[in-house]
Amino acid sequence: MLNAVLFIICVLIWGSTWYAIKFQFGIVPIEWSVAYRFFLAAILLLGWCIISRRRLRFSWSDHAVFAGLGALLFCLNYVLLYWGTSYLTSGLVAVIFSMMSLANQVNGALLLRIRIEPKVLVGALCGLSGLGLIFAPEFSKISGNDGLVTGIVLCLLGTLSASFGNTLAATERGKNFPLFAFNGYAMLYGSA
């Protein structure tokens, strides 16, 4: 039961962010939109760390890891996906981004020596196929789209950036950082 509730919460939060992205277009440049979003989130997370007296002092080398995560996960990933979204329908962007489950497995195997679980690979492929079927009607709208290749390449690069960020966070060092401080500093560096 708890797994189902956690899954539903994840789907509602993650799913709503794709909808929120649409509201960020056109008001300010994409890069500023990403910077504002993560600067505000960083202030909230780091503020929570101060209020709850969580550890905020780290070495310079720790901050280098935070900056790496920020660049990959909270800057490049979003900027590239937002740029790609300006060329493609949101359904196609979601399908491309869902390829991250496969990229995470490959990066984990290559960079962290984590064995690829066949059932996880099958699950990722089934999920990707399901998303493809759900958004199949949107794919028909992309014929004649001059920016199609550009949008796909931007979204694939954004997805790879996110996967490399996830891989960095999954290292032994990354797993040992306090979660709120790690993400707060990473968002702060990513917004910069």
What does this structure look like?
- The chain has ten helices and no strands.
- The chain has a domain at 67-192.
- Helix 2 (30-51) runs antiparallel to helix 3 (60-85).
- The protein has helices at 2-24, 30-51, 60-85, 90-97, 100-112, 118-134, 136-139, 148-169, 172-176, 179-191.
- The protein is mainly alpha-helical and 192 residues long.
Concise structural overview:
By secondary structure, the chain is mainly alpha-helical.
Number of strands: 0
How would you classify the helix and strand content by structural class?
A: mainly alpha
- SS element count, helices: 10
Order of helices and strands: HHHHHHHHHH
The global form is: globular
- Straight-line N-to-C gap: 41 Å
Note the quaternary state here.
Answer: single chain
Low-confidence stretches are none
Q: Helix coverage percent of residues?
A: over 70%
State Rg: 18 Å
> What is the percentage of strand-forming residues?
under 5%
Give the averaged pLDDT, no decimals.
84
* Main sheet attributes: strand count, strand direction, barrel closure: none
Membrane topology: Multi-pass membrane protein
Keywords: Membrane, Transmembrane, Transmembrane helix
Domain EamA: 4-135
Main location: membrane
